[in-house]
């Protein structure tokens, strides 16, 4: 096995090429870059440091399947040559990034009920795509435990976890506090010092744009003429999103991580989001998805090569995902229309498309939140333009379209959807729902796209499938789940271990802002039914959905882990 130390030794012993001089030039270059960015070297002495690299939504099963292919070439070398250890773990429920990272960063995943939720008391729709929601949630999280990134850096995250600096971190976009912003003039200087970066970013962006346009058009026509899907829509904006994620953001994260390691930043976190974003549109093992996986693998290799010896590196995913088919494509009816038929109430869905003026104003607000990264005239001009577009919209986008008449709100993420009724500020019981909407429970029970759903009744929680049900107590009894009654077959086993899922569902049903009814998608032809327009889904239960991976040099065996809170203990030791 060839280690980093061996490589460094071979450089110094080589009399035919002055590698030590090359290292001195590299160190000088980093110092110049840090000075240009206004990032001083850290004088404080720390013990062991870490860099945590997250590949969003990559399940253990996909890593295992492609470990001996070019798509995971570097991860294979880490495991086989450098004796790193890979383990899978259960990420809990909901299987989404805000919930799981709340557990990893703060040991408090139970403070989050999902990516999209409704605050019934304050009549407010909440989504973690909103920086204000991420900020407010982080204020709650930090009351329990300190964040694992204290005095560190966070790149592309929902929470800062106590980091001093962050890049594209939702909770700090509008509340940066003492986080020092990067100046656009300094970024330009950094690029000028590294012209190769400019060429590479431009080349990568162009290639990604061409490949994405090709993939998008091919997928579009495949779904129309081969799969014969109805309501298939070509989304022109997605190729440009892919260009940004893979051509620019990934490169910035790589540069930022390397610079921070050279500064001596003690705790660094990166989240590579491109794979997650791509699989939703293309599927788990599409050519495009595997291509981006290979790009991420190479990027991690470049970061690893620059890793000083006093850093531990962890590579993991927050949750998994499974191939899925959208609900409306399978049943020629949207979930909101189905619920409207059963209840005759007005139904609002979290992902419904707004008109173009509204979407433009909403985008302007989000862009306006990020202007704090800019300085001088660029920031002033940008803010002036965005302010004109987004006037009087900032508060409107956070308020649910609440009315005096009966309404139902569906907050969906992949194979997981929460249903809220506005007729009560509190979570409704099963008996209350049956009385108000006599056809609803039976309709949900009989629909083939719904695997099972969860609803409470006083001190009990009911898990209901079309021909079976399980009733458990809302609270643990002596630390264990108490089953009140069980009828029919074990319908949970296709999603995972029944005892583990019962414990996770019990935890979920006791969280603030959880839905009156929680829906979990069924399986159709081996694919999960998604309540959104996704071709790979997560958010709910599933053997692959809830099974991410964790790679470490220390050899952590996490196969018994059933909550992301347990990973907090690994990183807490560095504080």
Structure description:
The protein has 575 residues and is α/β, with parallel strands linked by helices. It is 42% helix and 18% strand. The strands form 4 sheets. It has an 8-stranded mixed beta sheet with strand order 10-11-12-17-13-14-15-16, with helices on both faces. A 7-stranded mixed beta sheet has the order 2-21-8-1-7-5-6. α11 (274-282) runs antiparallel to α12. The longest helix is centred in the middle third of the chain and has 32 residues, at 195-226. The chain is globular. The chain starts with a helix and ends with a helix. Residues 1-22, 181-185, 230-234, 352-357 and 392-398 have low confidence and may be disordered.
Can you lay out the helices and strands and say which pair or pack?
Layout: H1 4-13, H2 19-36, E1 49-55, H3 60-66, H4 73-80, E2 85-88, H5 97-106, E3 116-119, E4 124-127, H6 131-141, E5 153-157, E6 165-169, H7 170-173, H8 184-193, H9 195-226, H10 237-263, E7 267-272, H11 274-282, H12 287-305, E8 311-316, E9 322-326, H13 327-331, H14 335-343, E10 346-349, H15 356-369, H16 376-390, E11 407-413, E12 416-421, H17 430-436, H18 440-446, E13 450-457, E14 460-464, E15 469-473, E16 483-487, H19 498-509, E17 517-521, E18 523-524, E19 527-530, E20 536-537, E21 549-552, H20 565-572
Parallel strand pairs: 1-7, 1-8, 5-6, 5-7, 9-19, 10-11
Antiparallel strand pairs: 2-21, 3-4, 8-21, 9-20, 11-12, 12-17, 13-14, 13-17, 14-15, 15-16, 18-19
